[in-house]
Design a protein that fits this description.
The protein is an all-alpha fold and 342 residues long. It has a domain of 239 residues. The longest helix is centred in the middle third of the chain and has 26 residues. It is globular.
Length: 342
């Protein structure tokens, strides 16, 4: 994972002037606000949910260097909890989303405590095995509805005021959730805690020699990633009014890896782009039936081979080369700026 880009939309990282960086930040925000008046709101809401899911996954692999094959467990479990709390217990949607997110965080703490002591393929396989256990529970438990899932989940009224059955109200609620999650990730990456994570990714033995308890940092990052993945799953269950086995299958964990690679591993905005590309392909290639998976696979292979840094990674790399008087940002430094144990 050494040498991985850590670029986002920060001027210092992109190599762009502050004015251009502000423009690049304002354009997607403006597009998101105007989006439902141009495109199908359900399509945009699905893309935003998966974008948050991909960003949560990227926090772990892109900034800590840990590849998890079990993130679908957090997304799916939160979706089931939210659907059950809202439909069966009759709670309002915000309470359901919070309940699902909390369960995902607790599950992340357990998964992380069990898996964080291993690295590389061993860590990935442990997370996959634990996620398959969650899939089995979702399949067999009565409250999950088995293969039928939990259907007809009511969206209800947000805080008893806003009717989320209105597509535009629901869209802006999802957009707000995404922006909050994205802001948390961005602030984490650009905090002293985030600098320690980057140092662990680049050279963990050196971070240990400086006095940092790397297992503690990795566990906290794992829990945060699981929490945000759960937030995405909870929101998705309200969007589609459904929680199903699709959310906890191992294929979902694989799909988020592809989203992240396609958009740009280790970039802040890359997973968002990757998620939108993936959802767009699913939407417009659906007419090809069972061939859609084959077509997607070919497109992914071509994109990964053509854009080795991902779409956003290549754009940032090009911007650094053509921007006069600016050089590439140095690799994530070690952690001299923070005190051990913070």
């Amino acid at each position: 994972m050494a040498g991985m880009p850590s670029a986002g939309l920060h001027p210092r990282e992109t190599g762009l002037s502050p004015r251009w960086a502000l423009i690049l930040l304002a354009l997607p925000v403006a597009a998101a606000i105007a989006g439902p008046f141009v495109l199908y709101p359900i399509f945009l809401m699905k893309a935003l949910c998966f974008a948050l899911f991909a960003c949560a996954f990227n926090l772990l692999i892109g900034y800590v260097g840990l590849l998890s094959f079990g993130h679908a467990a957090f997304m799916g479990s939160a979706a089931y909890i939210t659907a059950h709390v809202v439909k069966v217990w009759g709670f309002e949607p915000l309470a359901g989303v919070l309940a699902g997110t909390v369960v995902a965080a607790l599950l992340g703490a357990v998964f992380g405590w069990l898996a964080i002591r291993r690295q590389g393929i061993y860590f990935a396989m442990i997370t996959l095995a634990l996620a398959q256990m969650i899939y089995f529970v979702a399949l067999q438990a009565k409250f999950t509805g088995g293969e039928d899932g939990i259907q007809a989940v009511p969206r209800g009224h947000l805080l008893g005021i806003v009717d989320l059955d209105d597509p535009f109200a629901m869209y802006y609620f999802v957009l707000a959730v995404f922006l909050i999650g994205y802001a948390v990730i961005y602030r984490t990456i650009h905090s002293p805690f985030g600098q320690v994570l980057k140092a662990i990714r680049e050279n963990e033995p050196r971070a240990v020699s400086l006095g940092y308890r790397t297992d503690r940092y990795k566990l906290l990052a794992f829990i945060l990633s699981a929490t945000l993945a759960g937030l995405a799953g909870s929101t998705k269950s309200l969007v589609f009014q459904l929680a199903s086995l699709t959310d906890v299958e191992w294929q979902m964990s694989g799909e988020v890896v592809l989203m992240t690679l396609l958009g740009g591993l280790g970039t802040v905005f890359g997973p968002v782009v990757g998620a939108f590309i993936d959802v767009t392909m699913e939407n417009y290639l659906a007419q090809y039936g069972s061939w859609v998976t084959v077509i997607q696979g070919v497109i992914f292979v071509i994109c990964v081979l053509t854009f080795r840094r991902g779409v956003v990674g290549e754009i940032i790399h090009l911007a650094r080369r053509v921007s006069p008087g600016r050089s590439e940002a140095p690799p994530p430094a070690a952690v001299a700026q923070t005190a051990p144990g913070e």
